[in-house]
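Researcher: Sequence recovery benchmark, item below. Answer with residues only.
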């Protein structure tokens, strides 16, 4: 995850993923109240990122 964070220049990526994974561990999304059924751990490599742009 650290490598992807450096390549994408998303400084908070590692912390954000750790925070989200804590919801998976608890079985409860405390931030958005998502159904626990949809919580899925982010932990298996490889990780990918894509760049998207909005078009009209």
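Model:
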């Amino acid at each position: 995850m650290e490598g992807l964070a450096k390549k994408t220049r998303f400084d908070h990526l590692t912390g954000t993923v750790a925070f989200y994974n804590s919801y998976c561990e608890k079985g409860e999304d405390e931030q958005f109240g998502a159904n626990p059924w949809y919580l899925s751990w982010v932990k298996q490599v490889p990780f990918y990122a894509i760049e998207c742009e909005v078009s009209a």
